[in-house]
């Protein structure tokens, strides 16, 4: 039965399907913008990094804390940050107070530096009394590595030490990350941080104690702390950044896999060294006699001779571990993790086996530039803010014997973070000497590369010269002082 009354135009029979793929029309597009079977794992963005960080910060911080408590490489990275960003002497203050004519006010510089050193002694700068300023710097560096940032609350008044100023390191857990809402006038709160309509931080909303510390015995109270009394030290990396992320965020999964692989390899090596012996019955249907129902041999001692029952043979368990392929594989994964952490794999592991002088020097140079950037983020975000408040209170309370009317003059701090010894000191010394002779470098710049102040170097050299002269000893020529014929002259004795 025909359902269509009109005749159809005759059509050519359909050609059999072809497996040849027709070339796609060329388009002006980026293929990397679309996920496919091989390049999967990303989506076309429908949110911002700021929003993603707010929603996922708890998981990132939790994973980072677990890694730092359990993984050797994660703990090694935190030690590297404390060692290189802070160093054994901390980030030191160097005042640059100048008179109206441009000359340095050496008295004011020495007075402020001495007072800052006194305030930074252990027990003085923090309200808990357990830390020095250097100890607080180390905790800040650890917080940046582990949690992406660190909070410092500032207190001022008569009850806060002889300078009237102390600080408190605040746990990241006390920030109310769940508090996100709009406020009247265009202001808003995001992840416990309050902003105005221009994105300037107005306040921090923190709990008086972490949720996990119920042993305090009182209910938690949320407090609004104005931004002038709280500092959030974070490395600025992205536009509109609110919360920092752990420095190991991209390496965390790989560090977890490395740790699991190492544990499995160690367990396999342990089984391989145990030399286990198994007995195998050749004919499963054959019944052993009553005399041989138990295991033929339970323990093996030196010189043991025994006989196995018929149908039973001994089989040794042979393990391939420790295998030579384990070390290259772990080194390969460690190299990738070190790249995400911004350090050389030799620094992260302490393994110099695969390093040459050229690769070590190149790797150290890149790594030290990263440390310098981190040092600057710390003293801009922490030291500059704390010093300005400390100086004002120290002048106001009279703990610093300088007129408060000249606060702007005295607020001239510069910071000297640690430097590093040269990988090739002889060649670098010759290069510095040539640069000095050509006028390409100054002594101040060379000292700064080593984390020293040129003024401190001059003071030390002057003190050394004075020490030689006070004791009636000849001043060495390398101190740059001409010998005036004092006893012990270096000139060779005259021949008689």
Describe the 3D structure:
There is one protein chain. The chain has about 500 residues and is α+β, with helices and mostly antiparallel strands. Helices cover about 40% and strands about 10% of the residues. The protein has 12 helices and 12 strands. It has helices at about 50-70, 70-85, 105-120, 135-145, 250-275, 325-340, 345-350, 355-395, 405-410, 425-440, 445-450, 455-470, and strands spanning about 90-95, 150-155, 165-170, 180, 190, 195, 200-205, 220-225, 230-235, 275-280, 310-315, 415. The strands form 4 sheets. The chain has a 5-stranded antiparallel β-sheet with strand order 4-5-6-7-8, with no helix packed on it. It has a 3-stranded antiparallel β-sheet with strand order 3-2-9. A two-stranded antiparallel sheet has the order 1-12. Strand 2 and strand 3 (about 165-170) form a beta hairpin. Helix 1 (about 50-70) crosses helix 2 (about 70-85). The chain is globular and about 105 Å long. The termini are far apart.
Largest sheet: 5 strands, antiparallel
**Number of helix segments?**
12
Overall mean pLDDT score? 83
- Low-confidence runs: 1-7, 485-493
- Percent of sequence in beta strands: 5-15%
Oligomer: single chain
Global shape: globular
What gap, in angstroms, lies between the N and C termini? 143 Å
Q: What structural class should be given to the helix and strand makeup?
A: alpha+beta
Can you give the helix content as a percent range? 25-40%
The run of helices and strands is HHEHHEEEEEEEEHEEHHHHEHHH
Q: Output the radius of gyration.
A: 35 Å
Strand order of the largest sheet: 4-5-6-7-8
How many runs of DSSP E, i.e. beta strands? 12
